[in-house]
Design a protein that fits this description.
about 260 residues
Length: about 260
């Protein structure tokens, strides 16, 4: 009989190399972004004037408020694009293949032939995403802070930490979307591509409806509840948004488990 969390340990080990590679690549890119900031700091007045001329929806959607501080620069160049959009897509994509890939390959039939429940299998596979989630949100903030010290533009470590802590509910919600799609489709590539499309469209929906009569539609997007710019630049925390995202993630996982229990595989 499989031991407790055996599936989670196996899936987690499978993610170690990919997580290490992703962490190194992100650190290298972030190091480059931070390294060039001093050149921007010399002309922040002109850049901020240009930002003011941009549409409100664009500025809010991409967190482009000010380059006058390292916090404002990183909010725009790093967190709003790399963390909110690209990592959101990454975790949705990863979760989309959790079960659909095994259905497509036929491996799921063999796994379910062992004394392991569908609920336990799905939950442990989902928990394996904690490997990249915890690693990225532990290593990257340390690297960002060290890099900012190296260029003598030190970022506030407290709010930097809070950005990463509050990004966890957001990334879990994105993962929940992927898990739902993973139990709905029999092909991993379909579930993964659908997840990318949905999260990207939700991001755009939140962006283009800002300051319009349809702004309420943006409440459907996870990005509405996590704003790195507000945390880093304005030092404003939206704990209510984090709670909403955690609830959304839980609902999505429970819904996925319900569908997975009833579907014929």
């Amino acid at each position: 009989m499989p031991t407790m969390l055996e599936t989670m340990r196996y899936e987690s080990r499978q993610r170690l190399k990919g997580t290490a590679a992703l962490t190194v690549l992100l650190a290298a890119f972030i190091g480059l972004i931070i390294y060039i900031y001093p050149s921007f700091a010399e002309s922040t007045a002109e850049i901020d004037a240009l930002l003011e001329s941009l549409p409100q929806a664009f500025r809010e959607g991409f967190g482009a408020e000010s380059y006058a501080s390292i916090e404002g620069f990183l909010s725009t160049e790093l967190y709003q694009f790399l963390w909110v959009l690209l990592l959101g897509l990454y975790f949705t994509y990863a979760a989309g293949g959790l079960l659909a890939n095994d259905v497509e390959s036929g491996r799921l039939y063999l796994v379910l032939a062992t004394p392991v429940s569908r609920t336990r299998l799905a939950v442990e596979k989902f928990l394996s995403l904690l490997v990249p989630l915890v690693t990225l949100n532990t290593v990257i903030p340390v690297f960002v802070f060290a890099a900012s010290m190296a260029i003598d533009y030190v970022i506030d470590p407290w709010y930097l930490l809070l950005v990463h802590l509050l990004s966890i509910p957001y990334l879990l919600a994105c993962s929940g979307i992927g898990l739902v799609l993973s139990v709905l489709f029999d092909r991993g590539d379909v579930a993964q591509r659908s997840g990318i499309a949905i999260v990207f469209l939700l991001f755009m929906l939140d962006t283009v409806t800002v300051d319009t009569d349809f702004e309420w539609l943006g409440t459907l997007s996870p990005t509405r509840y996590f704003d790195p710019t507000e945390i880093l630049l304005n030092e404003t925390l939206d704990l209510g948004g984090a709670i909403v995202l955690l609830i959304a993630a839980a609902v999505l996982v429970i819904a996925a488990l319900g569908v997975f229990q009833r579907r014929d595989v």
